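Homework help board

Subject: predicted structure for assignment chain

Our instructor gave us this sequence and asked us to write out the predicted structure in token form, then describe one feature. I got the tokens but I'm not sure how to describe them. Can anyone check?
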Amino acid sequence: MMNSSLKNLCKVQPGTIIEGKWHKNRYTILKELGFGANGIVYLAQFQQQKVALKMSDNGMSITSEVNVLKSFAKVQGSSLGPSLIDVDDWATRNQPVSFYVMEYIEGPDLLTFIQQKGTGWTEVLILQLLSDLHTLHEKGWVFGDLKPENLIVMGPPPRIRCIDVGGTTIQGRAIKEFTEFYDRGYWGMGTRKAEPTYDLFAVAMIMINTEYPKRFNKSTGGITQLQGMIRQAKALQKYEVVLLNALNGKYQSAKEMRADMIRNMSESVKKVNPAPKKRVTRSSVQNTRQATQKRKGGWLETTLIVMVISILYMLYIYGQVG
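My token output:
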């Protein structure tokens, strides 16, 4: 939690105008969005748009988070985090207060969206998240404080976005910020070293959290308790192997975990819609082999995801209209 002196220093009332010392941009504070160990985030008005403004007396923390956002910006076509708008110091305080301004990402958090739109969205959104995490990890970062509150779903079309990069850490260092329920150290399942497996443990806990919205307390801890909770939730049972691999640090990359999830989705579809039996002839076997050779990698994945997203998107739009 934020210490009281920092809270008092950075506490401002709605209507306050924050003017940058160097760039002279003026931001009108609308309301507080949240606070943590290293600062307070406000919703602010800048010209004709709403922005998120984070204020802190810890210049090193601000610099670190700004560097993360700049790194995100270099990844073309990615939506890892909010875009960076401005970095400055507040000119009207006796003690300098650093701040940065970023894109305001508006929408419900992950759990709220799933509760509103249905659990069918869990798989699609987690696949999106794993794609973004893979990109982040390849850039040498670990998100760290990964939890539903830091995952906002924008749309339509629904798209998961990561916010609050305060816990994002360079790989190899100690995790800067964490939330116990999603932290493998808390469950006695590993260290707090910043590495891809740390984030993937959190992804597994987020999936478990979707079936236990109020979370649950640690009793025995470890894999025994977590596996028991997985087996008690029918929606999680089909992903038991994937979840256990992630919890035990078996996946070396988010891409690997994502591939396993897609295989599970494919197997589930086959069980619901089994292929009709066909008469097997020599010519049909030969044709099948030729077709298999021509099939490009990823065809099944693409078809499956498009099918699921299309169905869910139609339901989403129907819900919006209704």
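Reply (TA_rk): Your tokens look well-formed. For the description, you could write something like this. Strands lie at 17-19, 26-36, 39-46, 49-56, 84-90, 97-103, 141-142, 151-154, 159-162, 169-170. That's the kind of observation they're looking for.
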